[in-house]
Amino acid sequence: MVKKSSIRYHTGYMDIQICTDKQIWDKGLLTLHNNEFLQSWEWGEFQRAIGKEVIRLQWDDGQAQVIIHELPLGMRYAYAPRLQTTDYGLQLILNFLKKTKYVYARIELTQSLSVVSSLSSVVVANRQPQHTLTIDLAKSPEKILQAMHPKTRYNIHLAEKRGVVVKEEKNSEVFWRLNAETTARDHFKSHDKMYYTKMLASPLARQLTAYLDGTPIVSHILVIYGDTCTYLHGASSDTHRNTMAPYLLQWRGMEMAKSRGCTYYDLWGVAPLKNPKSEIRNPKSCFNGYCWEAAHPWTGVTRFKAGFGGEPRSYPEAVDVIFQPMKYALYKLARKFL
After folding, report:
1. How high is the pLDDT of residue 332?
2. Alpha carbons 99 and 272: distance in angstroms, whole number
């Protein structure tokens, strides 16, 4: 697959190369049918813009974008999000990373690999959502609406009736103001202002904002890559919550994605979904044909997203592959105090 590269390494298995050419990288993803935006060239450039080191590895029949993160005490680790590869490819990547003195590599795969069980690794929480719902945009708008819960369809029409207007724009100031209200209200961690500003500067990003009488009340950041539009970040005002603007904004997002040729709309993160007939030890919550543990921290957002329908998708558990056990233990200890 790779015909040119700036640097070539030998891992003990075969040559692996660092790619510095966007056209070659994009061609590789196309050959692999990889539509994960986290492995796209543009996402790597966004990571560079916020200060991360990015390494793009390629070999004969695969590739992997790896992001380097700083740790306390001058240590570093490598992170490969939504990695699509084989057992052989993963071993190749890990052999390369082990030689570059990282403490560990955090790997989030798109599919299970048998080689993982033989690695010196520990299961950790996924940084990217492990479970999601994906809407099939190849269906007609009528079919997509029909798959939604009646209350969700009602709220979409209610927002229109109450005068909510949705605009596509890139305005990081609007998003940041609404994000400040959201984080104060819901008590969750947020990226800093520069993060969202740089993200919106990326050609991958789209922003939809709902206005009421000229005032922004909800704003979404979406990413379009390949055949998929992903709802990545949302922020909302403390006021005018009875307008049901978030419902209309999601629907407009689907319409926008469909108009740009996307086949799928990824709602990006829900609680693990169960079959309504399956047993759940803890009290469960069900909506629109989906069930999940009611006590899950994402139960509220899951109910909201489940109302839009879609196909559940799950990714394997993330693992930390440990290269330097002593330093890894030190890092884990340092996390408790820093």
Report:
1. 87
2. 36
